[in-house]
């Protein structure tokens, strides 16, 4: 019995003494590492690597310019040029579109520079290049300076001074007035609609060198279109706008947001119906645009009554179809294709100016009476 007890005690001692040698190698290594005082990174943020900046500079510039928004601005400018009653010049048309796009890119870049701390709080904008640190603020300012100078120069020297003045004024209005007002008053939406209505005026001025009633009609349509478009978009972004402190109608006065959207769809319909009587389009435009505008009003009415996510999304998506379709209808039903057509029509309607018409366009009316046929003397008379 004593020999058995001694043998059991010796077995326990040997097992307890050699337990470390029986552990796996990984366990031993972990224990060794933990024993050392290695400093660990406990920060809640880390630097964003920028080694790929040179390879993606084109993509980053497109993101700074808000490429899709800039494309829409250029499209409205091109529509204004095409709808103007003046001869179409391809070079001027291309320079006007390029200059408008560059000025819009500069405005969007400056806008992002000012709104970095607020964009970081919104899900829709938290992945912008300045928020993520893919570009530095100096890059945004440099990009804006280069594109604005190039764009305004193209408009001034390649198009005309009026178009350049409209572009420069719109750039200042967007960056220095509209951008800070977004956090001050809901009037920012009305001011932003003015900013969006100027590009088609730039296209019109680029083609004709002036602004007339046709430019006003186009500007009113673009101005009113932005209310149902943006109000429907902002409806589902209310948490983001509220978190970032933006004073939008959808946040501060939801009922007003819905009313304004419905009201301006009616303004668009009335403007399209008045367009033929103001000499901008023919009568077919009023008839062909009516179903499009009525459906737009119907979706705005649904948004006004239901005020839910589904109705606002339908209104926003249809607004993206409505504007290009309406511009296309205006172009197809354009009343005057050149300024000379308008001038001739005006001259003919004034009887006191008929004497001023050239001989090639003058119509001579002979008095009614017997017609005497002159015959050759050598021809015998039967």
TrEMBL record:
Family according to the record: Belongs to the ubiA prenyltransferase family.
GO molecular function, one term: protoheme IX farnesyltransferase activity
Function noted in UniProt: Converts protoheme IX and farnesyl diphosphate to heme O.
Name of the protein: Protoheme IX farnesyltransferase, mitochondrial
E.C. no: 2.5.1.-
Catalytic reaction equation(s): heme b + (2E,6E)-farnesyl diphosphate + H2O = Fe(II)-heme o + diphosphate
Keyword Coiled coil: no
Domain of life per record: Eukaryota
UniProt xrefs under PANTHER family: PROTOHEME IX FARNESYLTRANSFERASE, MITOCHONDRIAL
CDD domains reported in the protein's UniProt record: PT_UbiA_Cox10
Membrane topology summary: Multi-pass membrane protein
Signal peptide: none
Claim: Hydrolase is one of the keywords in the record: no
GO biological process: heme A biosynthetic process
Keywords: Heme biosynthesis, Membrane, Mitochondrion, Transferase, Transit peptide, Transmembrane, Transmembrane helix
Membrane spanning residue stretches: 67-84, 162-181, 201-225, 315-332
InterPro entries: Protohaem_IX_farnesylTrfase, Protohaem_IX_farnesylTrfase_mt, UbiA_prenyltransferase, UbiA_prenylTrfase_CS
Record Pfam families: UbiA
Compartment list: Mitochondrion membrane
Organism: Manduca sexta
